Amino acid sequence: MPPSTERRLASLSWTAVRDQAARRGSTVVWPFGAIEQHGPLLPLGTDGLFAERVAEAVLERLDPDLPIWRLPLQSIGFSPEHLGFPGTLSLPADLVIELVRSVGKGIAAAGFQRLVLFNAHGGQIGLLEAAARELRVLEPGLAVLPCFLWRGADGLAELIPEPERSTGLHAGLAETSLMLFLEPATVGALPAADGLAPSPPPPTGWSLEGACPCAWLTEELSSSGVIGDPSEASDDLGRKLFLRLVGSWERRLDALVRSDWPPTSGRP
Fold this sequence. Notes:
Blueprint (H helix, E strand, L loop, with lengths): L13 H8 L5 E6 L13 H16 L6 E3 L22 H18 L3 E6 L5 H14 L4 E6 L15 H4 L5 H10 L35 H4 L13 H23 L11
Parallel strand pairs: 1-2, 1-3, 3-4
């Protein structure tokens, strides 16, 4: 079968899937997003758009002969923290876990060696990690890698100044800039910095995310749904963020597909 630049698993016949899955390093990437409020500036589908666009760009840049394919975007996720704002949709945690288990079992049955959960919604990082462990027990021959788009990408920190780097958790400088680059027509008017009500800081030693987090609800932190400061967002910053995200994930996925890592059991 000639190499495909689209790499959409759903575009293959079952015989092509069988042949691709049997190749050394065969990998499936599953983008995850959410349908949730992103303040008055950004659309509900922001996270899904980021996951899909970065995944598409990465797969286009990889060697076309590598056996790596992608599933359609899982657009609705686990977003209970944003349910105080209209338009947010959230699946129950157990349903998301069952979804990962069910789809993962099918990927394993086809013969693929790895499933990458390529997630862009910070509120479901822990849930997908738990789902990945459950799937790994059920399918010991399938390596499962729950990844977060923004975590560990090279060079992002130097583009986002403090305090935004630590406190810009939702619809702030980074997300607004990336959307200005990818889909500028969907971005509302940027507010002035002094028009944003700052979130109340947690007590010393605690944080909204990180080492000692709390289970926060967005309406407790922000009347607009924005947690951070998007007032200095720009398409130029969004372009730089996009290039670094794509470059980092291209290197990671290329190394993964060409390797025998991580170890699995249950394969002959």
